[in-house]
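Continuing the batch. This is chain 6 of the set; chains 1 through 5 are on the previous pages. Same settings as before, nothing changed between runs. Recording input and output for traceability.
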Amino acid sequence: MTVGIASSDSSSAAQLIAAMEQAGVAGLIRQWIIPTARMPDAAEALPDVLLLDLARETEPLFAFGAHVRRIRPATRLIALSAVSPPTHQLLVEAMRVGVQDFLAKPVAADVLKNMLSQFAEELGGQVRPSLDKLIVVMGAKGGVGATTVSVNLGVQLSVFARKHVALLDFARPLGNAHLLLDLHPRFGVRDAVDNLDRLDSHFFGGLLTPHKTKLQVLGGATQPEEWQTIPVPLLERVVNVAQNSFDMVLLDMGSQFSDEWSSILKMARMILIVAEANVPSLWTLQRRLLALTGLGVEPDRARIVLNRWHKGDEAVMKGIQKDFNWPVFACIPNDFRKASTSVNLGTPLLENAQNNGLSLRYRQIAAWIAGIESAPTEKKGGLRGMFSFQAKR
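Output for chain 6:
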Protein backbone atom coordinates (compact mmCIF):
# COMPACT_ATOMS: atom_id res chain seq x y z
CA MET A 1 0.00 0.00 0.00
CA THR A 2 1.30 3.45 -0.93
CA VAL A 3 0.55 6.52 1.16
CA GLY A 4 0.91 10.17 0.16
CA ILE A 5 1.22 13.22 2.40
CA ALA A 6 0.16 16.67 1.19
CA SER A 7 1.11 19.48 3.55
CA SER A 8 1.93 23.18 3.52
CA ASP A 9 4.16 22.81 6.59
CA SER A 10 7.42 20.90 6.10
CA SER A 11 7.85 20.44 9.86
CA SER A 12 4.38 18.95 10.24
CA ALA A 13 4.98 16.75 7.20
CA ALA A 14 8.20 15.46 8.77
CA GLN A 15 6.32 14.47 11.92
CA LEU A 16 3.74 12.64 9.81
CA ILE A 17 6.45 10.78 7.91
CA ALA A 18 8.02 9.74 11.23
CA ALA A 19 4.66 8.45 12.46
CA MET A 20 4.09 6.63 9.17
CA GLU A 21 7.48 4.91 9.26
CA GLN A 22 6.95 3.91 12.88
CA ALA A 23 3.54 2.47 11.99
CA GLY A 24 5.27 0.20 9.47
CA VAL A 25 2.21 -0.26 7.26
CA ALA A 26 2.97 1.76 4.12
CA GLY A 27 5.20 0.19 1.53
CA LEU A 28 5.96 3.57 -0.07
CA ILE A 29 5.50 7.10 1.27
CA ARG A 30 5.26 10.08 -1.10
CA GLN A 31 5.24 13.74 -0.09
CA TRP A 32 3.95 16.92 -1.70
CA ILE A 33 4.50 20.40 -0.27
CA ILE A 34 1.51 22.65 -1.05
CA PRO A 35 1.38 24.86 -3.04
CA THR A 36 3.24 22.71 -5.52
CA ALA A 37 4.82 23.89 -8.74
CA ARG A 38 3.31 20.97 -10.65
CA MET A 39 0.24 18.89 -9.96
CA PRO A 40 0.60 15.11 -10.38
CA ASP A 41 -0.69 13.59 -13.60
CA ALA A 42 -2.04 10.23 -14.67
CA ALA A 43 1.43 8.96 -15.57
CA GLU A 44 2.59 9.15 -11.95
CA ALA A 45 2.07 6.46 -9.34
CA LEU A 46 -0.62 8.03 -7.19
CA PRO A 47 -1.10 6.70 -3.64
CA ASP A 48 -3.74 4.34 -2.32
CA VAL A 49 -4.23 6.73 0.62
CA LEU A 50 -3.62 10.49 0.68
CA LEU A 51 -3.26 12.35 3.99
CA LEU A 52 -4.27 16.01 3.74
CA ASP A 53 -2.40 17.86 6.49
CA LEU A 54 -4.82 20.75 6.94
CA ALA A 55 -3.54 24.16 7.99
CA ARG A 56 -5.23 27.55 8.36
CA GLU A 57 -5.63 27.79 4.58
CA THR A 58 -7.49 24.63 3.65
CA GLU A 59 -8.45 25.49 0.07
CA PRO A 60 -5.10 24.62 -1.63
CA LEU A 61 -4.99 21.25 0.15
CA PHE A 62 -8.58 20.39 -0.69
CA ALA A 63 -7.91 21.40 -4.31
CA PHE A 64 -4.91 19.05 -4.40
CA GLY A 65 -6.98 16.21 -2.93
CA ALA A 66 -9.77 16.79 -5.46
CA HIS A 67 -7.23 16.74 -8.30
CA VAL A 68 -5.81 13.39 -7.14
CA ARG A 69 -9.30 11.92 -6.82
CA ARG A 70 -10.20 13.00 -10.36
CA ILE A 71 -7.18 11.15 -11.73
CA ARG A 72 -7.45 8.16 -9.39
CA PRO A 73 -10.95 7.89 -7.87
CA ALA A 74 -9.87 4.86 -5.78
CA THR A 75 -7.50 6.98 -3.67
CA ARG A 76 -8.80 7.32 -0.12
CA LEU A 77 -8.58 10.84 1.32
CA ILE A 78 -7.95 11.38 5.03
CA ALA A 79 -7.95 14.90 6.46
CA LEU A 80 -5.78 15.72 9.47
CA SER A 81 -6.91 18.75 11.43
CA ALA A 82 -5.90 20.51 14.62
CA VAL A 83 -9.56 21.54 14.97
CA SER A 84 -11.22 18.71 16.87
CA PRO A 85 -14.03 18.05 16.39
CA PRO A 86 -14.05 19.64 12.90
CA THR A 87 -16.51 22.47 12.34
CA HIS A 88 -19.62 21.99 10.22
CA GLN A 89 -18.18 24.17 7.46
CA LEU A 90 -14.93 22.19 7.41
CA LEU A 91 -16.85 18.92 7.18
CA VAL A 92 -18.93 20.20 4.26
CA GLU A 93 -15.83 21.38 2.36
CA ALA A 94 -14.11 18.06 3.01
CA MET A 95 -17.06 16.00 1.82
CA ARG A 96 -17.22 17.97 -1.45
CA VAL A 97 -13.72 16.82 -2.41
CA GLY A 98 -14.23 13.24 -1.28
CA VAL A 99 -12.58 13.18 2.18
CA GLN A 100 -13.70 9.98 3.89
CA ASP A 101 -12.06 10.23 7.33
CA PHE A 102 -10.85 12.84 9.81
CA LEU A 103 -7.99 12.46 12.29
CA ALA A 104 -7.05 14.90 15.03
CA LYS A 105 -3.51 16.31 15.06
CA PRO A 106 -1.03 15.42 16.35
CA VAL A 107 -1.58 11.89 15.07
CA ALA A 108 -0.12 9.00 17.05
CA ALA A 109 1.67 6.22 15.17
CA ASP A 110 -0.66 3.61 16.72
CA VAL A 111 -3.75 5.43 15.44
CA LEU A 112 -2.30 5.60 11.92
CA LYS A 113 -1.30 1.96 12.08
CA ASN A 114 -4.78 0.78 13.04
CA MET A 115 -6.50 2.85 10.35
CA LEU A 116 -4.05 2.02 7.57
CA SER A 117 -3.96 -1.66 8.49
CA GLN A 118 -7.71 -1.74 7.99
CA PHE A 119 -7.36 -0.04 4.60
CA ALA A 120 -4.62 -2.47 3.59
CA GLU A 121 -6.86 -5.41 4.40
CA GLU A 122 -9.68 -3.87 2.36
CA LEU A 123 -7.28 -3.50 -0.56
CA GLY A 124 -6.24 -7.11 -0.15
CA GLY A 125 -2.67 -5.98 0.45
CA GLN A 126 -0.09 -7.14 2.95
CA VAL A 127 -0.39 -5.31 6.24
CA ARG A 128 3.35 -5.59 6.96
CA PRO A 129 5.20 -4.89 3.69
CA SER A 130 8.56 -5.15 5.51
CA LEU A 131 8.00 -8.70 6.73
CA ASP A 132 10.91 -10.14 4.75
CA LYS A 133 13.48 -7.74 6.24
CA LEU A 134 13.64 -8.62 9.94
CA ILE A 135 15.82 -11.48 11.21
CA VAL A 136 15.76 -12.01 14.99
CA VAL A 137 18.70 -13.81 16.60
CA MET A 138 18.24 -15.13 20.13
CA GLY A 139 20.13 -17.51 22.36
CA ALA A 140 18.49 -20.60 23.79
CA LYS A 141 20.41 -19.59 26.94
CA GLY A 142 23.15 -17.17 27.86
CA GLY A 143 26.66 -17.81 26.57
CA VAL A 144 25.82 -19.81 23.44
CA GLY A 145 27.13 -17.13 21.07
CA ALA A 146 23.98 -15.37 19.82
CA THR A 147 25.77 -12.01 19.55
CA THR A 148 28.68 -13.61 17.70
CA VAL A 149 26.20 -15.09 15.22
CA SER A 150 24.39 -11.74 14.85
CA VAL A 151 27.57 -9.78 14.19
CA ASN A 152 29.17 -12.19 11.73
CA LEU A 153 25.95 -12.84 9.87
CA GLY A 154 25.40 -9.08 9.59
CA VAL A 155 28.91 -8.59 8.21
CA GLN A 156 28.47 -11.35 5.61
CA LEU A 157 25.09 -9.99 4.52
CA SER A 158 26.72 -6.60 4.07
CA VAL A 159 29.98 -7.68 2.40
CA PHE A 160 29.16 -10.89 0.54
CA ALA A 161 25.44 -10.42 -0.18
CA ARG A 162 25.91 -6.63 -0.69
CA LYS A 163 22.84 -5.75 1.33
CA HIS A 164 22.23 -2.51 3.22
CA VAL A 165 22.07 -4.02 6.74
CA ALA A 166 21.30 -2.65 10.20
CA LEU A 167 22.10 -4.53 13.41
CA LEU A 168 19.91 -3.59 16.38
CA ASP A 169 21.43 -4.53 19.73
CA PHE A 170 18.40 -5.22 21.93
CA ALA A 171 20.13 -7.77 24.16
CA ARG A 172 19.40 -7.54 27.88
CA PRO A 173 20.69 -6.61 30.36
CA LEU A 174 23.69 -5.30 28.36
CA GLY A 175 24.42 -5.04 24.66
CA ASN A 176 27.94 -5.84 23.54
CA ALA A 177 27.68 -6.26 19.76
CA HIS A 178 29.82 -3.13 19.34
CA LEU A 179 32.70 -4.81 21.19
CA LEU A 180 32.87 -7.58 18.59
CA LEU A 181 33.27 -4.89 15.91
CA ASP A 182 35.62 -2.59 17.87
CA LEU A 183 33.08 0.24 17.69
CA HIS A 184 32.35 3.06 20.13
CA PRO A 185 28.68 4.08 19.66
CA ARG A 186 27.68 7.59 20.71
CA PHE A 187 23.99 6.70 20.61
CA GLY A 188 21.92 3.61 21.20
CA VAL A 189 18.53 2.06 21.67
CA ARG A 190 17.58 4.36 24.55
CA ASP A 191 18.17 7.43 22.36
CA ALA A 192 15.85 6.00 19.71
CA VAL A 193 13.05 5.34 22.19
CA ASP A 194 13.50 8.73 23.90
CA ASN A 195 13.05 10.52 20.55
CA LEU A 196 10.07 8.68 19.08
CA ASP A 197 8.30 11.97 18.37
CA ARG A 198 10.83 12.70 15.60
CA LEU A 199 12.20 9.25 14.82
CA ASP A 200 12.17 8.86 11.04
CA SER A 201 14.66 7.32 8.62
CA HIS A 202 16.88 10.41 8.62
CA PHE A 203 17.01 10.78 12.41
CA PHE A 204 17.46 7.04 12.85
CA GLY A 205 20.46 7.07 10.54
CA GLY A 206 22.14 9.62 12.81
CA LEU A 207 21.88 7.22 15.77
CA LEU A 208 23.73 4.42 14.00
CA THR A 209 27.44 3.64 14.18
CA PRO A 210 28.94 2.48 10.86
CA HIS A 211 31.47 -0.33 10.63
CA LYS A 212 34.09 -0.43 7.89
CA THR A 213 32.19 -3.34 6.31
CA LYS A 214 29.23 -0.91 5.88
CA LEU A 215 27.20 -2.74 8.53
CA GLN A 216 25.30 -0.14 10.59
CA VAL A 217 24.87 -0.75 14.33
CA LEU A 218 22.37 0.65 16.81
CA GLY A 219 24.20 0.33 20.13
CA GLY A 220 22.63 -1.51 23.02
CA ALA A 221 22.27 -0.64 26.69
CA THR A 222 25.55 0.06 28.47
CA GLN A 223 24.02 -0.01 31.96
CA PRO A 224 21.44 -2.62 33.10
CA GLU A 225 19.19 0.07 34.59
CA GLU A 226 18.70 1.64 31.15
CA TRP A 227 16.04 -0.96 30.41
CA GLN A 228 13.90 0.61 33.13
CA THR A 229 13.38 3.56 30.75
CA ILE A 230 12.99 1.49 27.57
CA PRO A 231 9.39 0.25 27.23
CA VAL A 232 9.64 -2.92 25.16
CA PRO A 233 6.37 -2.33 23.21
CA LEU A 234 7.82 0.91 21.79
CA LEU A 235 10.73 -0.99 20.26
CA GLU A 236 8.39 -2.21 17.53
CA ARG A 237 8.25 1.35 16.22
CA VAL A 238 12.05 1.53 16.17
CA VAL A 239 12.15 -1.73 14.21
CA ASN A 240 9.62 -0.39 11.70
CA VAL A 241 11.73 2.70 11.01
CA ALA A 242 14.78 0.47 10.53
CA GLN A 243 12.88 -1.68 8.04
CA ASN A 244 11.92 1.42 6.08
CA SER A 245 15.60 2.37 5.83
CA PHE A 246 17.44 -0.91 5.16
CA ASP A 247 17.38 -3.97 2.93
CA MET A 248 17.73 -6.24 5.96
CA VAL A 249 17.50 -5.73 9.72
CA LEU A 250 19.20 -8.07 12.21
CA LEU A 251 17.99 -7.90 15.80
CA ASP A 252 20.23 -9.34 18.51
CA MET A 253 17.78 -10.21 21.27
CA GLY A 254 20.16 -11.98 23.62
CA SER A 255 18.61 -14.79 25.64
CA GLN A 256 15.95 -12.93 27.65
CA PHE A 257 12.42 -12.31 26.41
CA SER A 258 8.84 -12.22 27.62
CA ASP A 259 5.35 -11.88 26.14
CA GLU A 260 6.06 -8.13 25.72
CA TRP A 261 8.24 -9.09 22.75
CA SER A 262 5.47 -10.95 20.93
CA SER A 263 4.66 -8.13 18.46
CA ILE A 264 8.30 -7.91 17.34
CA LEU A 265 8.71 -11.68 17.14
CA LYS A 266 5.55 -12.00 15.06
CA MET A 267 6.78 -9.48 12.50
CA ALA A 268 10.09 -11.33 11.96
CA ARG A 269 10.67 -13.19 8.75
CA MET A 270 12.91 -15.61 10.62
CA ILE A 271 13.94 -16.25 14.23
CA LEU A 272 17.34 -17.90 14.55
CA ILE A 273 17.61 -19.67 17.92
CA VAL A 274 21.26 -20.32 18.75
CA ALA A 275 22.05 -23.35 20.90
CA GLU A 276 24.87 -25.78 21.62
CA ALA A 277 24.86 -29.59 21.60
CA ASN A 278 24.81 -30.02 25.38
CA VAL A 279 22.08 -30.87 27.86
CA PRO A 280 21.49 -27.41 29.48
CA SER A 281 21.34 -25.69 26.11
CA LEU A 282 19.04 -28.26 24.52
CA TRP A 283 16.76 -28.27 27.57
CA THR A 284 16.25 -24.51 27.29
CA LEU A 285 16.01 -24.73 23.49
CA GLN A 286 13.00 -27.03 23.72
CA ARG A 287 11.25 -24.70 26.15
CA ARG A 288 12.12 -21.68 24.02
CA LEU A 289 10.45 -23.28 21.01
CA LEU A 290 7.34 -24.04 23.07
CA ALA A 291 7.27 -20.48 24.41
CA LEU A 292 7.43 -18.99 20.91
CA THR A 293 4.54 -21.17 19.80
CA GLY A 294 2.60 -20.04 22.87
CA LEU A 295 3.14 -16.39 21.89
CA GLY A 296 1.53 -17.03 18.53
CA VAL A 297 4.71 -17.09 16.46
CA GLU A 298 4.27 -19.24 13.36
CA PRO A 299 6.39 -22.37 13.92
CA ASP A 300 7.97 -22.35 10.46
CA ARG A 301 9.66 -19.03 11.22
CA ALA A 302 11.82 -20.48 14.00
CA ARG A 303 15.18 -21.92 12.94
CA ILE A 304 17.63 -23.87 15.12
CA VAL A 305 21.30 -22.95 14.73
CA LEU A 306 23.78 -25.21 16.53
CA ASN A 307 26.90 -23.23 17.40
CA ARG A 308 30.36 -24.60 18.28
CA TRP A 309 29.57 -27.80 16.46
CA HIS A 310 31.82 -30.88 16.46
CA LYS A 311 31.48 -33.63 13.90
CA GLY A 312 30.91 -36.05 16.78
CA ASP A 313 27.71 -34.16 17.64
CA GLU A 314 25.89 -35.55 14.61
CA ALA A 315 23.93 -38.02 16.74
CA VAL A 316 22.77 -35.13 18.92
CA MET A 317 21.48 -33.29 15.86
CA LYS A 318 19.50 -36.33 14.74
CA GLY A 319 18.08 -36.63 18.25
CA ILE A 320 16.96 -32.99 18.20
CA GLN A 321 15.17 -33.45 14.91
CA LYS A 322 13.48 -36.62 16.16
CA ASP A 323 12.60 -35.59 19.73
CA PHE A 324 11.71 -31.95 19.03
CA ASN A 325 10.12 -32.64 15.64
CA TRP A 326 12.05 -29.60 14.48
CA PRO A 327 14.84 -29.64 11.87
CA VAL A 328 18.24 -28.09 12.53
CA PHE A 329 18.61 -25.17 10.13
CA ALA A 330 22.41 -24.83 10.26
CA CYS A 331 25.46 -25.86 12.24
CA ILE A 332 28.43 -23.58 12.84
CA PRO A 333 31.70 -25.47 13.33
CA ASN A 334 33.73 -25.13 16.49
CA ASP A 335 37.04 -23.31 16.00
CA PHE A 336 37.92 -21.91 19.40
CA ARG A 337 41.14 -20.23 18.33
CA LYS A 338 39.69 -18.29 15.40
CA ALA A 339 36.47 -17.42 17.25
CA SER A 340 38.31 -16.27 20.39
CA THR A 341 40.77 -14.16 18.41
CA SER A 342 37.93 -12.57 16.47
CA VAL A 343 36.00 -11.64 19.62
CA ASN A 344 39.01 -10.35 21.55
CA LEU A 345 40.31 -8.20 18.68
CA GLY A 346 36.88 -6.94 17.64
CA THR A 347 37.37 -8.17 14.09
CA PRO A 348 34.62 -10.19 12.36
CA LEU A 349 35.39 -13.44 10.55
CA LEU A 350 36.18 -12.28 7.02
CA GLU A 351 39.15 -14.37 5.99
CA ASN A 352 39.11 -16.36 2.76
CA ALA A 353 36.04 -18.52 3.20
CA GLN A 354 37.60 -21.44 1.35
CA ASN A 355 40.24 -21.71 4.06
CA ASN A 356 38.07 -20.92 7.07
CA GLY A 357 35.14 -23.12 8.06
CA LEU A 358 33.62 -20.43 10.28
CA SER A 359 33.70 -17.72 7.61
CA LEU A 360 32.34 -20.13 5.05
CA ARG A 361 29.44 -21.18 7.25
CA TYR A 362 28.38 -17.58 7.95
CA ARG A 363 28.69 -16.76 4.26
CA GLN A 364 26.51 -19.73 3.33
CA ILE A 365 23.83 -18.73 5.85
CA ALA A 366 23.94 -15.15 4.52
CA ALA A 367 23.59 -16.43 0.95
CA TRP A 368 20.55 -18.53 1.87
CA ILE A 369 18.86 -15.66 3.72
CA ALA A 370 19.59 -13.20 0.90
CA GLY A 371 18.37 -15.62 -1.74
CA ILE A 372 21.73 -15.95 -3.50
CA GLU A 373 21.79 -19.22 -5.41
CA SER A 374 25.54 -19.40 -6.00
CA ALA A 375 26.51 -19.89 -2.36
CA PRO A 376 30.17 -20.81 -1.70
CA THR A 377 30.95 -24.48 -1.09
CA GLU A 378 33.60 -26.35 0.84
CA LYS A 379 36.71 -27.82 -0.72
CA LYS A 380 36.82 -31.57 -1.17
CA GLY A 381 37.54 -33.24 2.13
CA GLY A 382 36.30 -30.23 4.06
CA LEU A 383 32.96 -29.75 5.78
CA ARG A 384 30.70 -30.93 2.96
CA GLY A 385 27.86 -33.11 4.16
CA MET A 386 28.07 -32.06 7.81
CA PHE A 387 25.56 -29.23 7.39
CA SER A 388 22.36 -28.66 5.52
CA PHE A 389 19.80 -25.90 5.50
CA GLN A 390 16.24 -26.77 6.44
CA ALA A 391 13.72 -24.27 5.17
CA LYS A 392 10.58 -25.83 6.66
CA ARG A 393 9.50 -27.99 9.53
